[in-house]
Amino acid sequence: MIELYTAATPNGHKVSIALEELGLPYRVHAIDLMKGEQKRPDYLKLNPNGRIPTIVDTDNDDFAVFESGAILIYLAEKTGRLLPKDAKGRSRVLQWLMFQMSGIGPMMGQANVFFRYFPEKIQPAIDRYQNECRRLFEVLDRRLGESEWLADDYSIADIATWPWVRTYKWSGVKVDGLENLKRWRDAMAARPACQKGIEVPVKLPPLDEASDAARAFVKGAQSMLQK
Ligand SMILES: N[C@@H](CCC(=O)N[C@@H](CS)C(=O)NCC(=O)O)C(=O)O
């Protein structure tokens, strides 16, 4: 059994999508980020970074794994799926996985902070992160113009990237003209595992600007930034 510590965010959704895709039994432990549950001493023993997601594999001596990219690799290796074994195929998946972990995730995270959560609107910072996200999206679009998936086949690289890219409106990133990215976004959104994975631990209402849920979310994120 995989114990999954998570919240309704892109990094959390990567892992629930992978678990759904792989058909592994898992138990969800919702971590309330606004209450700071990710900083509690018992949780820090599992994840020294004090963030979600984390897994504990009870079939492997309660082995704990933190960092979403490392979790995806662990689950792929545990099942022998979604990560090829040949050196070149494996490397191509890991290249796109690292591209997500070091680029798409951090840049969209910062775009969210400056565009949504900071009460002060610092336009050069907003532009910097939104433009960098757009540049990264163009890299994805070019790749998806030559390949159905990010690597040779559907893999943990697609699973890592989609939960972030699908939230482009929330980060204020423009996707006009990126038709290959759109084709891939639609293909990902149609997968049952992706649909189930993004409802873990809870189904969020659409975070459009007008909704109460969005206002509460921004307020919560602002208070978290102050901690
Ligand atoms: N590099 C980490 C990033 C994890 C991360 O930033 N998680 C966010 C939610 S998406 C979080 O737990 N935020 C709470 C906090 O910053 O206290 C990973 O990929 O696992």
TrEMBL record:
Residues 1-83 form the GST N-terminal domain. Coiled coil: none annotated. Residues 86-217 form the GST C-terminal domain. Gene3D superfamilies: 1.20.1050.10, Glutaredoxin. InterPro entries: Glutathione-S-Trfase_C-like, Glutathione-S-Trfase_C_sf, Glutathione_S-Trfase, Glutathione_S-Trfase_N, GST_C, Thioredoxin-like_sf. PANTHER family: DISULFIDE-BOND OXIDOREDUCTASE YGHU, GLUTATHIONE S-TRANSFERASE-RELATED. This is Glutathione S-transferase N-terminal domain-containing protein.
